[in-house]
Amino acid sequence: MASNLGCIGLQPESEDGLLTLLNAVEGSMRPLGRTDQGAEVLQWTDDSGARLTLTVSGDDIVDLVPSYAGPTGVSLAGATRHGDFVAADVLDGDGELTTRLLCELEQRAFLPADGASGAAALTAFGLDVAVHPSEAAFTASDDSLLTPRESAGAAASGAGAARLAPESFISLGLFGTAGSQGDAEPYARLSGRVTSTETRTNSRTGQRFHAVGVQSIGMRLTVCLAATDHPTPPTSGSVVSGIVYLAASMPSLWPSAQRDRPTTRR
Predict the structure, then answer these.
(1) Cα 104 to Cα 123: distance, rounded to the nearest angstrom
(2) What sign has the CA pseudo-torsion 38, 79, 119, 11?
(3) Which of 10-24, 113-127, 142-156, 228-242 has the lowest mean pLDDT?
(4) Percent helix, strand, coil in the chain (nearest 5)?
(5) Rounded distance, CA 202 to CA 33, Å?
(6) How far apart are CA 16 and CA 21, in angstroms?
(7) Alpha-carbon distance 92 to 97, whole Å?
(8) Burial of residue 257, with CB atoms counted within 10 A of its CB: 0-12 exposed, 13-18 middle, 19 or more buried
(9) What is the pTM of this model?
(10) What SS3 class is residue 27?
(11) Would you say residue 263 has pLDDT above 90?
(12) What would the pLDDT profile of 153-165 be if each residue is shown by its tens digit?
């Protein structure tokens, strides 16, 4: 099973492999701003779309967020700090609440204390994900059971068993067993319909991964899958389902976006 980094072609070959990578790309990192405490936020984006956002204080890396340079496809509202991560509402096209999520955020260092709202690009690292050839195949599988078979026993797969829709989302960090602010992490149980797939090769490592466009309930996002876990790219119309780890980017929170925002004179 791939790690977050492995899902974007950056699986380290050794314990110090990530540090070696960061040293190698240091010269091509783009500075994006400084925090009020003087820490610098830097970002590196590979030609494959794999992305690393770092917060550096002196010689220390105080935060590292892997993600993917995908399109914006989700509207977040009331994004606020929740422990080391960010919690937010997910709104549909009519501005109605669809669900809530917990995620990493590239711009967490610049998130206002009273929260923020706006369009976001959402990356889901497919840590334990299955691909089903159709919605019908997903619905007939154990992966659609609300309570997994191994937890609920054989009765869970009976005729009256509760099942998830092909487009469904449960933020495990907020609604699952790790629900308190102290131990919540941005894992989610996601199911969604595949709309596109691009197989990418990370230029730094030569590792391949799939950037899968997925439509789920209230959101369009990119699910990144390591090719070692999924040798065959998912096809349009198939359903990906399983446990993912979430990272988001709200471009409007970058300091340059704040400076370039037009002001209204009264």
Answers:
(1) 10
(2) positive
(3) 142-156
(4) 20, 45, 40
(5) 26
(6) 9
(7) 7
(8) middle
(9) 0.91
(10) helix
(11) no
(12) 444 455 568 999 9
